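Supplementary Note 3. Input sequence used for the single-chain structure prediction.
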Amino acid sequence: MIKETVDAVRIAEMEAEKQIATAKENAAGEKAGIKKKEADYRAEQIQAAQTRADKAMSEVVEECKKYDLEMEKQMNEKVAELKASSEEKMEAAVEAVIDALI
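The predicted structure, written as discrete structure tokens, is reproduced below.
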């Protein structure tokens, strides 16, 4: 009877060790699954942030281009005004020199 009890205890211990090993394997699998989900989520979040950053950058670049075009237009207008003013003054200066020579 003692031998049967000892054998039963050994069998129970072996079954318990098998269950523990299975539980450890399952836990390792779950842990790996969670790590994969974490990595996937991180990658999705990084991609979403990158997309938002790219969109914002495109908008800023577009705004800068519009600003550059507006500033170039204003500069061209100012240059045209200065050229016109210069031509008017040049005509007056030439007439004054001609009048002074005559």
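Residues 54 and 60 are 10 Å apart (CA to CA). The radius of gyration is 43 Å.
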